[in-house]
Design brief:
This protein is 24% helix and 32% strand. Strands 1, 2, 3, 4, 5, 6 and 7 form a seven-stranded antiparallel sheet that branches. A hairpin with a 3-residue loop joins strand 4 and strand 5. The longest helix is centred in the N-terminal third of the chain and has 18 residues.
Length: 160
């Protein structure tokens, strides 16, 4: 199966109720849009809602690092570029960049690791072979992409 590099989500509109008292897109809702865009990529590799119902397995986020680069307003639309960085039998390490849908600038990024979970046991379990093959294909499609500067970013106050 061939995957685009990077995987690009559909366009998402900032909803009015997501605007905070500062007059801009509230930080919590960036994660809502990242989650929706991630669902599109995971659907493409066979880990969508149908898979969860059929296999009684899903995936949980283990870690997420968000970097806010530029504010968004109520009238803005965004798309999200998704890049698979690494994977193993149970986990996927991936990166998302939220871009202004019209002008293309990056508003926010997130780096995540998810783990495959057997919902009956509520324990990690290996991806099934067909899904693992799709993960491998997505990772290979993304192997030539540059690693964004926020990957592996360490939080702290930099001393000059």
């Amino acid at each position: 199966m061939a995957f685009p590099a990077p995987f690009v989500s559909s366009v998402h509109k900032i909803e009015d109720q997501w605007i905070d008292y500062n007059g801009h897109f509230n930080m919590a809702y960036y994660n809502v849009l990242f989650d929706r865009a991630g669902d599109e990529a995971f659907e493409a590799i066979g880990l969508g809602a149908d898979y969860v119902k059929r296999a009684n397995c899903s995936f949980f986020t283990l870690e997420a690092h968000v970097t806010y680069l530029r504010e968004l307003q109520a009238s803005d639309t965004v798309r999200v570029d998704i890049q698979f960085l690494d994977y193993d039998a149970k986990r996927i390490h991936y990166f998302e960049q939220m871009r202004h849908a019209v002008d293309g600038w990056i508003a926010c990024t997130t780096e995540l690791i998810v783990i495959h979970v057997d919902m009956s046991a509520r324990k990690s379990s290996p991806f099934p072979p067909d899904v693992l093959a799709n993960i491998k294909a997505m990772h290979e499609a993304h192997a030539g992409l540059p690693i964004p500067p926020q990957v592996g970013h360490r939080i702290g106050i930099q001393k000059k």
